[in-house]
Amino acid sequence: MKNVSKTGRITKGATSQPLGVRLAPDEVQEVETFASEQQRSRAWFLRFLILRGLADYKRELASKPTH
User: Fold this and answer.
1) Residue 8: which of 34, 58, 47 has the closest Cα?
2) Entry pTM
3) Dihedral (CA of 11, 16, 17, 18) sign
4) C-alpha distances in angstroms, 29 versus 26, 34, 44, 51, 61?
């Protein structure tokens, strides 16, 4: 049996449960294209986008003045 390196994978137990996401067919194709270009799985790429979006959202919230 061939050993497979786990380099670049998320820590075991880092995800509590899978989340379903609904995308239009053209959005799915776009995600698959970008994931393939980076030689990553569709799940990895979607997680990457979500984490990036969360970081941007948090920065946006932090920069808004409070009333």
Assistant:
1) 47
2) 0.69
3) negative
4) 5, 9, 15, 20, 31
